[in-house]
User: Fold these one by one.
Assistant:
Number 1:
Amino acid sequence: ILSASVQAMIRRQDGNVHLLSTSAMRGWESLPNGWQDAVTHASLIAIDDLHLADERIATELGLLIDYALNLGVQIIATSRVDSKEWPARRLWEVMRSATSIWIGKPSSVSLITHLRRHTSGRAMLLDDSMLARIVSHSDGDWRSTDAAFEKVALAIESGERIVNADDVEMILLEKPIAKSNVEEYIERENLESVASQVISKSIDQVYT
C-alpha cells in the first residue's frame, strides 16, 4: 500500500515524493545534510518500518515529520508496532495523534468473494465449494490465493474437466484427476468414432 501510494503521487506529478526506509538507516546518527530543503519541496513523505528506527535516528525522524507537517506535507508511515508502545521520544510525540489503520489477513469469505469476480471475468463455472478449496490451499493472503486460482484456471483453459471441489484439489496438488466410468466410456466412444471416420475416408480414397 505504501509503494502504491507513492506511485500514485508520482503519476500525479504534484511535487516531490520521498520514500524512506528505516531498515536502511540502521547505525545512522543523523539524517543527511539538507533534508530540510528536500522536505520544503515535497508533497509526500513515505516512511517504511517506522518501528525499526534506532533511538538517535528516531529523534531525527520525529523532527523531520514535525517540520513536514507544519509545511503541509503529507506523511504516510508503516509500523508493525502501535505508536503507543514506542519509547517516549520526539517520534512518539508527533505520531501518537496520527490516524492509524491496521491491516490484517483477509477473511476466507473476502477471498472467496474476490475469486468470484475472477471467475466471472474468465467465464468459468466454479461454485463456492471449489473456490473454498482454492482458498484452503493458499496462505490466506491475496497473492497466494490469486496464484492458486491461476493454476486452476490455466488447467481448465487447457482442457481439464472440473466436476467438483476434489478435482480442483487434484490440480492444486498436481495429481491426475480420476475419470468416472461414464467419462471413460464417452472418451472411448469418441476415439472409436474418430477411428471409424479415418478408416472410412481412407477406404474412399483407395477406391477413388
Note: Residues 47 and 77 are 5 Å apart (CA to CA).
Number 2:
Amino acid sequence: GIPHLDSLVLRKAGKDFEQQKAEAKYLLGFRPDKKMVVFAPPQLGRYEGSIDRALSQLAEWSIDTMTQMAMCFHPFEADETFQSIQNAFQTHPYTKIVKPDMADTLDVIALADVVISQHSTVAIETLALGIPFVEIDLDQVGVLESLVEQCLAKRVGPNEFKKIEAILEGNGMPNYVLVNEWLVNNVGPRDGQSSKRAADEIESMVNA
C-alpha cells in the first residue's frame, strides 16, 4: 500500500465524501457542481517538452470548453516561478493556480475528475485513488516510463484534448480491470491500513 494515501482512501470511502468534496472545491474557488481537471506536472525542469506550450494550450482548452482546472506545481519550484505563473492566470475564468500553502496537491487530486501529468509519483497516486490519469505529450517527444504503454492511462498529444472531454463525459475511460490488476501487483492493498501494517511490521522486527 501507500501509507501517505491512507487518510484520503478512507475519506473517499466515507459516506460524506461528496459533500466534503463540494465544500473543498468551493473553498478553492471552484463551482462544486461542475467537474474539475487537475494539471500536476513533475518538477518543471523534468517536464518532457515545452511547459509553456502545455500551460498555454491547457488554458485555451479550459476557456473553449468552460472546464474548471486546478494547476498544482511541485513544492520545490522557486517562489518566482509560482508568482510568474500566478500572474499569467490571474484573470483566467476557469483555471486557478493552487499553491502548496493553499492546499496539498494530493488533497486537490482527490477532488479531480481527471488528472493530467507525466512521469511523476502523481501518476501512481492518481491511479491508487481511482481517478482517470492522462499523460500529456504535446511536443511528441515521448514520456519517460509511460503508463499509456501499459494501458493504464490515456495519452493526449497535439489537437487531442477531446480525449479529456470524452473521459469527463464518461467515455474513453481506462480499462479498470487492467488498472486494478496493475495496482494489486505494484501498489498492494488500498484499504487505508497501510500505515498500520508498516507499523506492525516494524514492531514485529524490533521485538524479534
Note: The beta strands are 36-39, 68-71, 95-97, 114-117, 133-136, 154-156.
Number 3:
Amino acid sequence: TVTLGFSAGFVFDILMVLAQKFLDEPKPVLAFIESTIAQEIKTGMIGITIAKHTTDLKLAHYLYSGCLMAGAGRCIMAILNPDYIPFYTKLYSDDLHASAEFLCEQTRFGATSDFYSSLICRSFPIFQQIQDPIYFNRQPYVLRHRGAKDFHRLAAFICLAKNLSKHVLTIDDPKDPRIKEKWLRTEIQDIGLSPDTLISIMKNVGS
C-alpha cells in the first residue's frame, strides 16, 4: 500500500511538471492539482478506514492509491482544456450523483476524467491491474453486470469513499435519510455495508 501510495504521488508530480512546462499560465492549473491531491488524500484515508470494515475486498491494497488515481484524470483535463476547472467547480457544487457527473463530462468534453485516469493507470505497470475499476469508479454497476466481482467491489468502494469525503456528516441514526441521499447513492446501494457500519466508519474518520 505504501509503495502504491508513493507511486500515485509520483504521478501527480509528473502532472505538475507537465503543467509548468506546457502552459503559458500554469498557476491556476497547479493550484487545481494541489487541491485535487489534498482532496484525494482525504478520500484515500477514508478508503483505508472502509477497508478495515470489510473482508470482502480482495483488492483492498489498491483502495488508497485508487482513490488518488481516480482524481489524476481531472488534472489532465485541466491541463488540456482551460474550461475544465470552472466546469468541474460548478459540477462539484451541484452535487450530482457520480454517474450523472460522468455523463456531464462526456457530453461537454467528449471524454471523461475517468478515461484519462484509466489511461494513466495503463501507462504504469504498478497500476495496470486497476485501470477498469478506475474507469468505472463512477459507474461501478457496469463491472457488476460484467461479472467482474473484484473490480466491481474496488470501483464501488472508491465511489463510496468519494461520497463520504465530500459529505462529512455527523449521523447517529441508521435510518437517517441522508445516508442514502449522500453516502449510499444509486450507483453503490448494493455495496453490502450497513448504515451502522457507515456511521462507524465516519466516526473513526473524525476521531
Note: Residues 27-51 form the longest helix (25 residues).
